[in-house]
């Protein structure tokens, strides 16, 4: 009887360990065009550039978090340059990493400028 109880406790403990696995967050890079820039709130109003984009025709991208990084890759040289929020202009094509979009609102961790600058 003692072995059965120990076995049940061991199995329960192992089951508990596997059930407490950390959920990994998946971010998707989505192509968009900047329609408006809100400098007060550090955010962009964008429209999705891809067919059936999760961003739709208008979506607000919140860029307030100081850990968000803004980058630009020069396609000719391959050089990556860090940008600031103020470096973006209306009409720029961008790629934003989003986890989900709710009520036309999304949080991001990265914004990459696709529009090539000279």
What is the secondary structure topology, with strand pairs?
Elements: H1 2-19, E1 28-38, E2 43-48, E3 59-62, E4 69-73, E5 80-83, E6 93-102, E7 105-113
Parallel strand pairs: 3-7, 4-7
Antiparallel strand pairs: 1-2, 1-6, 2-3, 4-5, 6-7
How would you describe this protein?
Residues 1-19 form the signal peptide. The chain is an alpha+beta fold and 118 residues long. The protein has one helix and seven strands, in the order H-E-E-E-E-E-E-E. It has one domain: OB fold (Dihydrolipoamide Acetyltransferase, E2P), CATH 2.40.50. It has a five-stranded mixed barrel. The protein starts with a helix and ends in a 5-residue tail after the last strand.
Short description:
This protein is of the alpha+beta class and 118 residues long. The chain has a single domain (28-113), classed as OB fold (Dihydrolipoamide Acetyltransferase, E2P), CATH 2.40.50. It contains one helix and seven strands.
What is the C-level CATH assignment? Answer: Mainly Beta
Helicity range: 10-25%
Biggest beta-sheet profile: 5 strands, mixed, barrel
**Overall geometric form:** elongated
CATH hierarchy: architecture: Beta Barrel
């Amino acid at each position: 009887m003692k072995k059965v109880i120990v076995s049940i406790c061991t199995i329960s403990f192992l089951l508990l360990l596997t059930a407490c696995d950390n959920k990994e967050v998946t971010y998707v890079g989505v192509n968009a065009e900047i329609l408006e820039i809100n400098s007060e709130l550090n955010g962009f109003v964008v429209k999705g550039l891809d067919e059936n984009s999760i961003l739709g025709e208008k979506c607000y991208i919140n860029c307030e978090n100081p850990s968000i990084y803004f980058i630009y890759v020069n396609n000719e040289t391959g050089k990556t340059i860090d940008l600031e929020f103020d470096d973006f202009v209306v009409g720029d094509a961008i790629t934003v990493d989003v986890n989900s979009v709710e009520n036309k609102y999304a949080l991001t961790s990265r914004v990459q400028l696709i529009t090539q600058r000279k």
